[in-house]
Amino acid sequence: FQICLSLVRLLHYLAHSPLGSVTLLDFRPRQFVIVDGELKVTDLDDASVEESSCTSNSDCFMEFPARNFTLPCSVEGRCQSMNEKRNLYNAYRFFFTYLLPHSAPSSLRPLLDKIVNATGNHNKHVICTEYLALELSTSPSVNSEFTQKCMKSANTQYRRVPEAFIPDENYRCWPSYHHKGCLLSVFDVNEAIEICDSYSQCKAFVLTNQTTWTGRQLVFFKMASNHIVPDPDKITYVKVTD
């Protein structure tokens, strides 16, 4: 969320900079760094403020590996918003499709899917829409509302086992931070319960003391709890069955 939100802020600035609309011709993840939580461009050698000239719409053809676009040619003989559209689609294919929908709370996934699809389709005013939507989805009020919904909807009972870990009983899920198990990030215990309830094979989960760079806690989801071992840095929750 934070990386994508920071990138949307950058895209909005590039589209409305004092120099005009700026495009990054070499738009790749390695050209960016994170400084104090904000995404920054490190290489401006391939930045350009020149909109492509044209005599017809066919001159405004943009080709990408997955799909192509044709933009309108303005009466001034310039391809309309080509710089902005190039940045936007590159942001979609290098960042948004990989980062935005995955491990998001289920209540936010329809909104995030809509944002990703709109970006990939070059919908009008999509940058402003994304900015507002992402600001909303990362606000404390939305996180609080999501937490309350989880607390109300969590009907399954779990037994809390402090200082305990389940070393085996792994299953694979996507997306996972661990290639041999199901390791996901959560906002709190309530979200972990919702995720475990959504997987038929999940019978327990383990809260670790590790977090992502945005502060979300990493949790192992397990398909059984037959073998629990002591671990002072973890807390295990076991699904209670009748």
Helix content: 25-40%
Low-confidence stretches: 140-154
- Rg, alpha carbons: 22 Å
Mean pLDDT across the residues is 79
- State the fourth-level CATH superfamily of the largest domain: Transferase(Phosphotransferase) domain 1
CATH-derived architecture of the largest domain: Orthogonal Bundle
Q: Quote the distance from N terminus to C terminus.
A: 39 Å
- Give a count of the beta strands, DSSP E runs of length 2 or more: 11
Strand content: 15-25%
Task: Give the SSE string.
Answer: HEEEEEEHHHHEEHEEE
Tally of distinct domains: 2
Order of strands across the main sheet: 7-11-9-10-8
Major sheet description: 5 strands, antiparallel
CATH topology of the largest domain: Transferase(Phosphotransferase), domain 1
CATH class of the largest domain: Mainly Alpha
Overall geometry comes to elongated
- Specify the number of helices: 6
What structural class do you assign from the helix and strand content?
alpha+beta
Would you mind describing this structure in some detail?
By secondary structure, the chain is α+β, with helices and mostly antiparallel strands. The chain folds into two domains: 1-138, Transferase(Phosphotransferase) domain 1 (Transferase(Phosphotransferase), domain 1, Orthogonal Bundle); 158-239, Hepatocyte Growth Factor, CATH 3.50.4.10. Helix content is 33%, strand content 23%. It has six helices and eleven strands. The strands form four sheets. The protein has a five-stranded antiparallel sheet with strand order 7-11-9-10-8, covered by helices on one side. A two-stranded antiparallel sheet has the order 1-4. It has a two-stranded antiparallel sheet with strand order 2-3. α1 (2-15) packs antiparallel against α2 and α3 (109-120) runs antiparallel to α4. The longest helix has 18 residues, at 82-99. Keywords: Kinase, Transferase. Residues 2-118 form the FAM69 protein-kinase domain. This is PKDCC kinase. It comes from Promerops cafer (Cape sugarbird).
